[in-house]
Amino acid sequence: MPDKIMEVKDLYVRFYTYEGVVKAVDGVNLDVFRGETLGIVGETGSGKSVTTYAMMNMVPPPGKITKGTVIYRKDGKEYVLTEMPESEIRKLRGSDISRIFQEPKAALNPVYKVGDQVAEAILIHRRREMLERALESLQGSLVGLKRAVLERALKSEDDLLVRIVKRLPLVRRLYWSPVKAEARKEVVKILSLMGIPDPDRVYDMYPHELSGGMQQRIVIAIALSCNPQLLIADEPTTNLDVTVEAQILELMKELREKFGMTLVYITHDMGVIAEMSQRVAVMYAGNIVEIADVYTIFKKPMHPYTKGLLEAIPMPGRPLKDIPGTVPNLINPPSGCRFHPRCEHAMEKCKSSRPKLVEVEPGHWVACFLYHDEAEVSEE
Which of 2, 37, 182, 350 has minimal CB crowding within 10 Å? Predict the structure, then answer.
């Protein structure tokens, strides 16, 4: 059986707004297997991004995980992210679990050089490695003082001499300069891996000086700077033109294979799903309605919503077909199966009971009464 790197059990996320409580994620169960690319697909507002924010236990306010468990596994050890203190989770974010945010312009700080923004993650999560490299490279005047401070910092950041140096800006800059120099070398190396020409020059540029595709590569570089085991990509190519999108998708596939990462790819584009994913989870209105390998999803979809998404793909010689209606308001979602108001196969049972996500074939999970009779309670 494949090794699970992350397990999501009975996850509920609520947003407490002035208009009411938004039931954004409603009882999601999801396994992520080590080394795979899992695609999460669905319309805008289906809960894809919120689910993955909850997987990192970083749901933005006024959101809150009200129920459920998220387990991350590393080196035979389990980390229950939904129960860990924030200080401990921060050690895993960026280093072990990383994220490519949806909007590169929003993810990058406009007043800092892009190289410094990539270096920030390295100096936080790979500080010890940079300190060791800096010690090896020391030469010139004042080496004795620098070496003494760096050696003590390696042993403990709480060392009295290190704490004194940190409080004196000029001395701190002197001691910290070789560490920053090593971080810069590492950033230039990473930018080169991203396919960025002249990475040493790009390091000193600001976000507004770069194109959308280059900004996206910088955001990917930040996410990959600490060699994460699990990478969550939140629609990273949505606002790019098709040629740049193809380059970014190819780059991500190459990097996944090079670093042996597990990738969770969020999108609403079924064409990207076909290109990137090995397994697919289809989401609708806060629920996962179908999970299967990518070949099965395209050749033998079962849930009416999955079929609707596939029929909405433009194809030569075939009339374009949309899914009637819109994604429901999640403050007052439909009772029973949330898709039933838009489903041509809806039965009376669908209006009162929510179908359970059941494995109807090996590896193929569906939440639909057309294929089984198992229901579950839709509320916490």
Answer: 2
Residue 244 CA to residue 234 CA, distance in Å, equals 17
Instruction: Give alpha helix (H) positions in the chain.
Output: 48-55, 86-92, 104-107, 114-125, 127-137, 143-155, 160-166, 169-193, 199-203, 212-224, 242-259, 270-276, 294-299, 304-311, 348-352
Handedness of CA 234, 239, 243, 247 (dihedral sign): negative
The per-residue pLDDT for range 31-66, each reduced to its tens digit, is: 999 989 999 998 888 889 999 999 999 998 899 999
Q: How far apart are CA 134 and CA 240, in angstroms?
A: 39
Contact 58, 64 (CB under 8 A): no
Report cis status (omega within 30 of 0) of the bond before 110: no
Q: How far apart are CA 27 and CA 358, in angstroms?
A: 13
* 364 Ramachandran zone, left/alpha/beta (phi>0; psi -120 to 50): beta
Q: For residues 127 and 106, what is the distance between their CA atoms, to the nearest angstrom?
A: 26
**Residue range 327-348, pLDDT digits in tens:** 888 999 988 899 999 998 888 8
Query: Do 211 and 104 touch, CB atoms closer than 8 A?
Result: no
Read off the tokens for 329.
């308001």
Amino acid found at 118? V
Calpha distance 4→71 (Å, rounded): 9
Length of the chain, in residues? 380
Provide the whole-model pTM.
0.86
| Tens-digit pLDDT profile for residues 110-164 | 999 999 999 988 888 887 888 788 777 776 545 566 666 666 666 666 666 667 6
DSSP 20: -
DSSP assignment of 65-117: EEEEEEEEEETTEEEETTTS-HHHHHHHBTTTEEEE-S-HHHHS-TTS-HHHH
What does the CA dihedral 312, 316, 318, 319 come to, rounded to 10 degrees? 60
Instruction: Please say whether the dihedral angle defined by the alpha carbons of residues 365, 369, 374 and 377, taken in this order, is positive or negative.
Output: positive
